[in-house]
Write a structure and sequence with these properties.
Blueprint: H1 4-17, E1 22-27, H2 32-44, E2 47-53, H3 69-77
Length: 78
Amino acid sequence: MDDLPLVEKLVTRLAQASKVPVSCKIRVFPKLEDTLAYARMVERSGCYLLAVHGRTREQKDNSRTRADWDQIRAVKQG
């Protein structure tokens, strides 16, 4: 996973310093648990709107790979 403490610190500081709501965009991880943990951390840090890209980094340039709508749904249900 990414450097979670750094991402958490950046989103927190941005949310505290900004006069407008902060939005973030993430990609799903191969494991649903990792995606949910990441989404919760970003939300807890002050993210007001979260966009979830349904493909992993490894699937980034593969337009034939379908988005993982189950992971997106799980993040939404939260």
